[in-house]
């Protein structure tokens, strides 16, 4: 592949962010990318702009447990329910942060009677799974997104996902849940309830003999009993959860959804963005564009680094401050060149994916004014 030029990214297809945010046919925007690239800030800026500039009733959902979103929106904290963001403009913007245990509790309460719900809540396996079980966060994120969309309360839902490889788990949640529900071991654990109340150990012993006795010795009868009770209690509601998760997955494939990759012009971040883009294309997810964040620019692009360094040598003795400024400019031009080269790895690999850029900000974004600046720059 030939070396990238400084024009490769600037001449690339531009992403019309304002058109995307204003489009009434777009109901969900999913921001995804590597960690540390400003993804949470970007999601908040997009949501704020959609609400303030385009009059859309917007909610931004973060799955990342970091508190940056709450701070930037002027909220003391975020929880599992949408909270109104107070702005000085006539806008309806809400924000929330996924609480996976509370979401799981809400599902149980909504799809079982009170007595069965209390049995589930008190089961040690449920308490562990709803708080720490691998994949639960992604399952609950899919569920919460489905709830928000089904409520039909919002014009636009903006989702801030975890760093990209974890966000892939978000996409995989329905399939992983289906494999779990259809697994052989789960069917065995459900067998006692489906066999008319025979004890789990009678049934498993009859089926597996020495194997079941070994499992019982390793795990203990109480642990196996808890697991059996947990699976039996959830059997009636898991099928519905899987169906809803698969429906949400279909919603993510629909044109009403727009995936936006967020990256910085750094090798690791661009590599992650490319990895995710390949996956989205393979899964027929609507990839709307790349948001290239923290891009450095120069006010004098016509002055090359080599010219600046030669000029600095000439004036160094009589004008040291001018020489220092020329050297700083040369360093900046070189950095811009490196960033353009790295970003071009993505644009050349995905020429049909439009790009919008955000110049590097002089300070961290920590309030609504900063979010407005980011949103305006994107647009």
UniProtKB/TrEMBL annotation:
InterPro entries according to UniProt: ArsA/GET3_ATPase-like (IPR025723), ATPase_ArsA/GET3 (IPR016300), P-loop_NTPase (IPR027417)
Organism lineage: Bacteria, Bacillati, Actinomycetota, Actinomycetes, Micromonosporales
Pfam families recorded: ArsA_ATPase
Recorded GO MF terms: ATP binding; ATP hydrolysis activity
TM segment ranges: none
Species per Swiss-Prot/TrEMBL record: Natronosporangium hydrolyticum
Segments forming domain ArsA/GET3 Anion-transporting ATPase-like: 27-295
Superkingdom of the source species: Bacteria
Stated name of the protein: ArsA family ATPase
């Amino acid at each position: 592949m030939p070396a990238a030029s400084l024009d490769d990214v600037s001449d690339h297809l531009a992403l019309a962010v304002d058109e995307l945010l204003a489009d009434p046919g777009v109901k969900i925007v999913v921001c995804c990318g590597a960690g540390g690239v400003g993804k949470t800030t970007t999601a908040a800026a997009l949501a704020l702009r959609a609400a303030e500039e385009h009059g859309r009733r917007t909610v931004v959902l973060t799955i990342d447990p970091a508190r940056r979103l709450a701070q930037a929106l002027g909220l003391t904290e975020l929880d599992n329910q949408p909270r109104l963001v107070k702005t000085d403009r006539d806008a309806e913007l809400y924000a929330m942060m996924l609480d996976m245990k509370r979401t799981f509790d809400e599902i149980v309460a909504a799809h079982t009677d009170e007595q069965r719900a209390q049995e589930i809540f008190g089961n040690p396996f449920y308490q562990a799974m709803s708080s720490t079980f691998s994949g639960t966060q992604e399952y609950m994120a899919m569920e919460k997104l489905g709830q928000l969309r089904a409520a039909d309360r919002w014009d636009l839902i903006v989702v801030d996902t975890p760093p990209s490889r974890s966000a892939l788990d978000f996409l995989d949640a329905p399939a992983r849940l289906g494999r779990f529900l259809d697994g052989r071991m789960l069917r065995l654990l459900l067998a006692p309830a489906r066999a008319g109340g025979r004890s789990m150990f009678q049934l498993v012993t009859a089926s597996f003999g020495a194997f079941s006795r070994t499992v019982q010795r390793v795990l203990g009868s109480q642990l196996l009993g808890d697991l059996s009770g947990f699976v039996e209690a959830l059997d009636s509601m898991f099928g519905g959860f899987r169906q809803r998760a698969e429906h949400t997955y279909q919603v993510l494939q629909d044109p009403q959804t727009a995936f936006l990759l967020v990256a910085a012009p750094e090798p690791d971040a661009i590599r992650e963005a490319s990895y995710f883009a390949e996956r989205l294309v393979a899964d027929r997810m609507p990839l709307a564009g790349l948001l290239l964040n923290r891009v450095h620019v120069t006010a004098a692009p016509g002055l090359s680094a080599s010219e600046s360094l030669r000029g600095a040598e000439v004036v160094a003795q009589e004008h040291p401050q001018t020489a220092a400024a020329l050297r700083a400019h040369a360093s900046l031009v070189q950095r811009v060149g490196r960033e353009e080269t790295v970003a071009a790895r993505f644009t050349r690999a995905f020429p049909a994916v439009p790009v919008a850029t955000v110049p590097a900000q002089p300070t961290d974004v920590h309030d609504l004014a900063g979010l407005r600046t980011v949103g305006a720059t994107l647009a």
